[in-house]
Amino acid sequence: MNKRQLLFRAAAIVLILILAVIMFIIGRGHTIYFDNKSAEYEGKQYKAYYKVTVIKDKEKVAKLSDDERGMTDLMGQTLSMTLEITDEKGQEPHSHKVSMPIPYGTDGIVINVPELMAGLPQQAYMSEFVPIATSEEDEDEEVVTDEFVMTEDM
I need a labelling partner for 69 at 20 to 30 A (CA). Which of 18, 33, 63, 136 fits? Predict the structure, then answer.
């Protein structure tokens, strides 16, 4: 193998690796949860809104009343959305365009809308989604492995 062939093969491998890294970062999927829930941060209360509509890519992905959660999926590392917020019943909604980076290593992100709109730091309004295990999942189920075990019902 001559030097020219070796150089082309090495360049092809490097190009493939660069493309793989770029596609890994761009194609990273996240599940984003939106909370319209009252919250407290550093002793100050942030009241939930009457209604919040989340619009991503010109599509309504969540319509939240007080104390509700919605969700959407996101490909990539930047969330761009429009929030249409109605503060109290009977008032006109006001729109806010929001764009924020999403932490790379986290799949499920919870965003508290009242804290986000209050201008609090990211660690206040954004947290990792942690599912709560139910007691049914924790109980061990008896597994019978012998086909010829006689039961009392027989």
Answer: 136
Taking the model in full, what pTM does it have?
A: 0.69
**What per-residue confidence (pLDDT) applies to 23?**
81
List of E strands, the chain: 29-36, 39-41, 44-46, 51-56, 59-65, 68-75, 78-86, 94-101, 108-112, 126-128
Judging by DSSP bridges, how do beta strands 29-36 and 68-75 pair with one another?
antiparallel
The overall average pLDDT reported for the chain is: 86
Listed by start position, the domains of the chain span 29-130
| CATH class of the 29-130 domain in this structure | mainly beta
What does the alpha-carbon distance between residue 110 and residue 71 come to, in Å, rounded to a whole number? Answer: 9
